[in-house]
Amino acid sequence: MSQHTSLSGSSVDNKSSLTKTGLGTFGGVFTPSILTILGVIMYLRFGWVLGQVGLWQTLLIVTLSTAITFLTGLSIAVIATDQVVKAGGAYYMISRSLGIETGGAVGVPLYFAQAFSVALYTLGFAESVVRVMPGWNLTLVAAITTIGVTLLALKSAQIAIRAQYVIMAAIAISLMCLVFGHPAAPYTGTVEIEPHSAGFWAVLAVFFPAVTGIMAGVNMSGDLRDPQKSIPWGTLAAIATGYGIYLIIPVILYFRADPITLLNDPLVMRRIALWGDSVLLGVWGATLSSAIGSIMGAPRILQALARDSILPSPLRWLGRGEGAEDEPRLGTLFTLGIALAAVGIGDLNLLAPILTMFFLTTYMVLNIAAGVEGFLQSPSFRPSFKVHWGFSLAGAVGCIGVMFLINITATILAAVVVLGVYLWLERQELACTWGDVRQGMWMTLVRSGLMNMTTIPDPKNWRPHLLVFAGNHLKRWHLVELAAALTHNRGLVSIFNILPLDVSNPQRQDNLTAIAQADLDQANIQAFFRVKTAPDLYEGMEQLVETYGLGPLIPNTVLIGHPNELQIDRYCQFLTFCHQSQRNVIILRDGTNHRRSEKFPLESVLVTPDKLHAPKRIDVWWGGLQSNGGLMLILAYLLRNSWQWHNTEICLKLVVPNLNAMQSAESNLVALVQRLRIGATPQIINAEGKPFADILLESSQDADFVLLGLAKPDDPMFADSSDSSYANYYQQLHGRTQHLPPTLFVLASEDLNFAQLLEKT
Known about the structure:
The protein is about 55% helix and about 10% strand. The chain has 2 domains: about 5-440, Amino acid/polyamine transporter I (Up-down Bundle); about 610-740, Rossmann fold, CATH 3.40.50. It has a 10-stranded mixed sheet, with helices on both faces. Strands 1-2 form a two-stranded parallel sheet. The two termini are about 50 Å apart. It has helices at about 10-15, 25-35, 40-45, 45-80, 90-100, 100-130, 140-155, 155-180, 200-205, 215-220, 225-255, 260-265, 270, 275-305, 330-345, 350-375, 390-405, 410-425, 440-450, 475-485, 505-520, 535-545, 570-580, 625-640, 660-675, 690-700, 725-735, 755-760; strands at about 5, 430, 465-470, 495-500, 530-535, 555-560, 585-590, 615-620, 650-655, 680-685, 705-710, 745.
């Protein structure tokens, strides 16, 4: 049983706002973002990139990589200026745009990526320290560093930001020393890497993580004084600043070091810098600043996930905040435990590509969210920062491309994880009070489809769209079941219960609709259920036949049961009305007065439990392809393709008056069956003077389902008779089939050549 949870939105949306006490644009967004961008890749891999592809291709790699990040930054700016962004950063934005399932599917992996990133950065810091202090233990240094940055985050986000100012100063000093440095001495060590040993795209894949990190500022959304202002401008400013620095560094390296030195000495910047150890301080600052950004961002994502009931019930306490700034201290301690466990592993090289994929997946989904919102142009979408939706979708395509370039296996694994979380959340049936873009997407698709549909029936794409008059669906569940078996959840099924005006009110209609829809969902039947009021049952049915539908999308087939004997005349008038309205009619006579049982509340009544594994046969009584025969064969074929009737034999029965007619009739019927490729078995029956009623009973009493054609109400044989003649005909036909298995009367009335549908001519 899936868990149904209702989200009022108050947990996150009603979080106490920080009127004038939050972080500003520079400290809350720009600083953590630029420090994450200017990271280890810049210090330890830029020389390798330049040595592999040369100056101009390096500048092209920087530009392409930054372009994708810049497009993502534009999408972030659009979303941030359209909605009030609370705690949770990227998760909050995505869940409020694409729905809580999509937000959770991205948010849960993103949290773990941020938590493991703390360990990645502190291990990187520890490795550089151990190179200077060879006697120190790497794991111990990493663990102490992890605890230290966590204590900074626990103390206050303000203190952590101030610590990042010191780190920023160290990085700035190292860059200044690089600018005013000198040419590097020739490399004298062992040459392990030769120039141009890696291709352009392989080098781009190595460099691209250097431009990621813009989420560091977005993740602080709950601590910002004005998120709608700070997130767009702080993020874009960090991207622009990083791009400018990344254009300058390769030029400096190109003129001050040869390719062999660039490729084989990861600390080539230390050789060039005016004060060499400043580069070492920069490396340490880069790793520590990234660790601080992750330890501050991850708990805030976790807090938002818990408040939106994404996390399992035992972990909802992680949504608590403390102090005036609502800081997630419990979530920070929880994240510390995960980070320390990852530090204990010691080597996260196998996890690193997958973590990068989660960040890129987040960028991709943010771009999709902004692009879809911009394309739909819903009245509620009014961002103050306007960008054409094409730029956002271009950013999404760029993210996908880079993901596959970096690591195909990691991309697939990340996609599997995200899809798994999405499907799990979908089964939880989480409900929320905020709207998202999905309804707008479906509306746009439906409108586009309706406007492009032709009003002329198309035999090639025909399938039954059923208007089912089931009354109390629990008493006529066999009608609902037959509709599902014929449509396979592909055609449209609309089920109606028509009530008298004097016994109905809006509340009762809503209750009946909710109960019926729950039964349909339990049985996995996709259908619309509605309750309609009318002064007369048949008057209400005729109104629906005449008016129900939208544009060219209208029900083409009416499914009903056998009437009350006292209303047979009015019933046949309704059949005539349907025929004149060009609606096919199929009448199910179940013959056993089936009701919903307690033991099998939604069990098959057309295929009872004792017959589920027994051979089945559908008898189609053939009267020719042009009349009702074409529609009967199509319905039998659709029924056989349903899971309940899989591999059922379709027996095509034709009655001939004598032996002389049997041979030619058999050859014609065999040829027809082969031409139609419908898998039916022809059977020619010699009447030998017997009445058709006797032949019908004798031949089909052991079948599982029978299809019979119904005479057309405008047939000339009824022209000169009284108004009740069609009713007499129907009563006689019904009497002949009372002792047969479930029988379907078929009246093809639609202006469509069903023979063309079968023969594809």
